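name: query_chain
kind: protein
chains: 1
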Amino acid sequence: MFDKERAKDVFLRYTQEYDTQNILISHKIEHTLRVAMLSERYAQALGMGAEDTALAWFLGLLHDIGRFEQVRRYGTFVDSQSVDHAELSGDILFLDGLLERFPAEGLPGDWRAIAELSIRQHNKLRLPEGLDARTLRFAELLRDADKTDIFRVMVSIPFDQRAGSSRASFQDTGEASPDVMACVLEHRCVPARLRRSRFEGHVSHCCLAFELVFPIARQTVKEEGWLLLLLAETDAEGKQIWNDTETEQLRILRREIEKAWGVSL
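structure:
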């Protein structure tokens, strides 16, 4: 049986090498543990066996390991302003040897190849073509679990804190461009190169909803309610959050997500 507690202990001891008082670090620890939990839940819902379910949890635990070094080096989570955090995670684990600190007993025999592919690809706009069905399933499961919790992170951490040292590179105002809204209408993610303003970043994160593969992930997102908060037009006091154009664009975005999912949020 895979020793989850030992693996979690190795992860937490590794994070102690970083400034855990930094909100970016502390929230990334929380995000990691939630993605591991969600990955396990989704694997169980999909009827995976014990070893595969353990691997799904382990992928969640490992997927963002490079985020901690990214913050130390660059002070931001914005990959376009620093480094591809998924590739950095893969390098730290599979090239620098961090993976050897973790237990492996109880995982399926093909776990290393699946893990490296899934971790390095979890943030990419599209998965590579030609993956075998088993690897594809794990990669999609990890991506779904990660996206599920990103909605919570977006609500929980203010933009200035999430962007860190890169916050000045985003315009404070500016409705979504026609190119960004075309992504909305085509039900796909927004490429990083199209995001110029904070609002366009907000829209692009909401568009992650279009990419969720498994019904259990869409169900979880709907039940948790974070996406609905991101799509809200007013704050808790009833004050309009966005300008009129941006508010209308959020209405369109919500309509398109509901159309894509076939349910009301």
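note: The two ends are 39 Å apart (CA to CA).
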